[in-house]
Design a protein that fits this description.
The protein is 2% helix and 43% strand. It has one domain: 6 Propeller (Neuraminidase). It is built from one helix and 28 strands. It has a five-stranded antiparallel β-sheet, with no helix packed on it. It has a five-stranded antiparallel β-sheet with strand order 2-25-24-23-22, with no helix packed on it. With 330 residues, it is mainly β. It starts with 17 loop residues before the first strand and ends in an 8-residue tail after the last strand.
Length: 330
């Protein structure tokens, strides 16, 4: 563990959320029960570099997210605005293997501890906020360093599932510091046992569980194969199968920008998945109900507030839209 310096200084005056031009593409009447007519997107933070990994802390009522190039985890709370939660969030030496030094995906476990896909340090880590130290939970598989963990999700039994593409490495798969010859999806048990879920995906990225925790979803951010995969999760947490849940290739052929990236799931099992065109709303059966069009590259999403607000990390902005559905656990 290494000592970190916490900074909680407010970066600027609180500003009211700003409505932004947006639209909702409605493809199925079922979307109306999830995204209300006239849903308005509002910008709550602007001027970031590249934001990712949003997570909502219910106990504190605030949002945390990563700005990867700034090597910072930021905190945003209604009425207080933006502050630095943790800097540096990731790599601190002067010999990085890549240019993305900060954290990526963030999530809280059942004990309200922050877990981090530590992109820059190539590990899954847990933060101790009492003294701002971190514990490495996983940084190697079969003796070889992980690539650059990207996103993670926690099951109720404490299992952590995470993706490990090469996006934190300069030149990606061609980087000589890349020790694994694949880009994997992993399961880390509460006892610390690391196992491989799959090594067959080119660029595994966002990851989420269904409300009943029986299905694991993984986004593949490969423009040549832009799919969301679904896997079966057994009672003991082991994963099997693997099928294409939704194929984004037709959207790319229509000229939609973006690739499968982060995702979150509501209490009814609908996916809110960033991808070609914005935030795709996909039913548990794999039906594309519609898209929340942000007009910019959108990397991830999380439910917050009372569970009915969807927060989006969209390039340099944090955007919020209020829905008529709620996230899991609210």
């Amino acid at each position: 563990m290494r000592k970190l310096v916490p900074l909680l200084a407010i970066l600027g005056a609180c500003a009211a959320p700003t409505p932004i031009s947006s639209q909702v593409e409605r493809l199925d009447p079922a979307l109306d029960a999830l995204v209300p007519a006239g849903a308005q997107l509002e910008r709550i933070v602007r001027g970031l570099d590249w934001c990712e990994g949003p997570t909502w802390r219910k106990s504190g009522g605030y949002l945390l997210f990563s700005d990867i190039p700034k090597n910072t985890i930021f905190r945003w709370k209604e009425g207080e605005g933006l502050s630095v939660f943790l800097r540096p969030a990731g790599y601190i030496r002067d010999d990085p293997a890549g240019v993305e030094l900060g954290t990526n995906g963030l999530v809280f476990d059942a004990q309200d501890r922050l877990l981090m896909a530590d992109h820059g340090n190539r590990q899954i880590a847990r933060l101790d906020e009492a003294n701002f130290t971190r514990t490495t939970l996983a940084d190697r598989f079969e003796g070889k360093r992980l690539n650059s963990p990207n996103d993670l999700v926690v099951r109720s039994n404490g299992d952590i599932y995470f993706t490990d593409p090469p996006y934190g490495l300069r030149d990606l798969n061609r980087n000589p510091a890349k020790e694994l010859d694949f880009n994997g999806v992993y399961r880390l048990t509460a006892a610390g046992e690391l196992s491989l879920v799959t090594r067959d995906l080119t660029f595994p990225n966002g990851i989420a569980l269904s409300p009943d925790e029986r299905t694991l979803y993984v986004a593949v951010s490969d423009r040549n194969n832009p799919v969301w995969m679904a896997y079966d999760v057994a009672t003991d947490g082991t994963v099997s199968g693997g099928r294409v849940f939704f194929d984004g290739a037709p959207l790319l052929r229509q000229g939609k920008n973006g690739a499968p990236d982060g995702l979150t799931v509501d209490a009814h099992g609908n996916l809110f998945a960033t991808g070609p065109g914005g935030v795709l709303v996909i039913s548990p059966e794999g039906r594309h109900l519609g898209t929340i069009v942000t007009g910019q590259a959108t990397s991830n999403a999380v439910f917050g507030d009372d569970g009915s607000a969807l927060y989006l990390t969209a390039d340099m902005d944090i955007i919020r839209v209020r829905l008529t559905t709620r996230g899991i656990g609210f």
